[in-house]
Design brief:
The chain is an alpha+beta fold and 113 residues long. The chain has 3 helices and 6 strands. It starts with a strand and ends with a helix.
Length: 113
């Protein structure tokens, strides 16, 4: 049985950092895959971490650019804040740079431009 966070079904963990975790998930409401970023400290998170996470979600939701994934939703599940955004399939930017080929670096710079 798969884990659920709100109306999102968790498919896989994509990454983990100091403040949170990002999952590949499936929105049961929107019927589409999403990347679900969650603040992992939950009720034990500092006020500064909570504000920073909420600001990240709000600012990202305001951005509109072909190379920036859109934010679809934000909320709280069992005391843990999350926001859902578009999921991008493929290699991460770091793996392109680590590959070290001219093509990989060129492609990475093109995406950032």
């Amino acid at each position: 049985m798969r884990k659920h966070i709100g109306h999102y079904e968790i498919v896989a963990e994509l990454g983990r950092g100091g403040m949170g975790v990002v999952y590949k998930a499936y929105s049961l409401r929107l019927c589409r895959p999403v990347a679900l970023k969650m603040l992992t400290a939950g009720r034990h998170a500092s006020e500064a971490s909570i504000v920073r996470f909420q600001n990240e979600a709000m600012l990202a939701a305001r951005l509109q650019h072909p190379n920036i994934v859109p934010v679809f939703d934000a909320g709280e599940h069992e005391g843990n804040l999350y926001f859902a955004m578009g999921v991008v399939e493929g290699a991460g930017f770091k793996s392109l740079i680590d590959a070290g080929t001219k093509e990989a670096v060129r492609d990475g710079v093109r995406v950032l431009a």
